[in-house]
Structures are given as C-alpha cells and as structure tokens.
C-alpha cells in the first residue's frame, strides 16, 4: 500500500513540475493554439476567470501537451510586454505570472507576455496575447 502511494506521489510531482500550461482551477480556463520559439509565434489565447484571477506558468518539458511537435523546449526568459488595463499582472519566479482583476471589475481585459527559448528545431521568442474575460 505504501509503495503504491509513493508511486502516486512521484507521478504527481513529475506531472506538475514539468508542465507548460495555465494552472487549471475551476475559476480559470485558458484556450489557444500552441506556440513555437523557432517560428517567433504571435498567438492569442482566450482566458476566462472569476474575481480571484488566474495563474499562468511555463516550464520546460518533453511531450508538452500544448506543443504538438513533442520537441524538448528550454525556456530562457519571460517578461510582461503589455500590462492589463483593468487589473494587475505580476511575475512570480522566472516563468510564472498571476493576473488579478481590479476589485469589482467585470468585463474584458488583455495583457501580453513575451517568452523566449529554444527547442530542437531552433530558438526565438513567442508573443502571447491573453484576452481575458472576467465574469
């Protein structure tokens, strides 16, 4: 029994530590296409949340669920390129961001994150525009 529990804990740590995605919670959902450093992608993602905001995190992995080419990605830097108008976007750690809408705000907001890195196919930077809907 203890051995099975240990295996489950290892799987949980591996699956949460090596992921590239928005941290899914009931109040926070993000959809959009994959991005590729070597193409200097400019993509737009739709994100919906409640007043509690949304956390986004990026980390290198193989077999990334958002990266259909399944190539190893190495993240080198991430910065806030455009601040939201109706909330606050803060960077916590190298590749993690948290968006919190202004108190009482409901409606649309947007912000841009610029993330650079490399993969087996090349290197470059991707511009991720988040169109947020706060319900």
Query: What number is the mean pLDDT?
Result: 79
CATH 2nd-level architecture? Sandwich
Could you tell me the strand content as a percent range?
Answer: over 45%
Structural class: mainly beta
Strand order of the largest sheet: 2-3-9-8-5
Q: Could you name the CATH topology?
A: Immunoglobulin-like
Question: Quick gist of this model?
Answer:
Residues 1-21 form the signal peptide. The chain is mostly beta strands and 135 residues long.
Task: Describe what you observe in this structure.
With 135 residues, the chain is mostly beta strands. It has one domain (22-134): Immunoglobulin-like. The chain has one helix at residues 2-17; strands at residues 21-22, 28-31, 42-49, 54-57, 73-82, 87-91, 96-101, 107-119, 122-134. A five-stranded mixed sheet has the order 2-3-9-8-5, with no helix packed on it. Strands 1-4-7-6 form a four-stranded antiparallel sheet, with no helix packed on it. It is elongated, with a radius of gyration of 16 Å. The chain starts with a helix and ends with a strand. Mean pLDDT is 79; it is low at 1-24 and 62-68.
